[in-house]
């Protein structure tokens, strides 16, 4: 009667946590008799619901759910960065800027950009 029940799916044994009712009662302000947790078996269980009872997500893992990635599937790779369009512009540097490097402002296709010119840049060199 009462106590918290924890059970696994697919024929896995359960766990009767009725002895912990005083702990759950002090945490949730009740007698702890209504706490139930079970899994359907298979892969890792999603513990977000039980962690939300404690006031947060699964261990504060920066948006990732327990047993999974922030991308939804626990086996999913994060998206690969995509290359942007190349921007082309010509600028004139002083000798000192070319030798020491500098941060310069460029206007390309009507948009203003700031970029760093590395030290030792050569005439006609492409930079990233």
TrEMBL record:
InterPro entries on file: HSP40/DnaJ_pept-bd (IPR008971)
Please name the GO terms that the record assigns under molecular function.
unfolded protein binding
Region Disordered, annotated ranges: 62-89
Locate the transmembrane regions by residue number: none
GO term, biological process aspect, one:
protein folding
- Name of this protein: DnaJ1
Annotated source species? Bifidobacterium bifidum
Q: What is the lineage of its organism?
A: Bacteria, Bacillati, Actinomycetota, Actinomycetes, Bifidobacteriales
Gene that encodes the chain:
dnaJ1
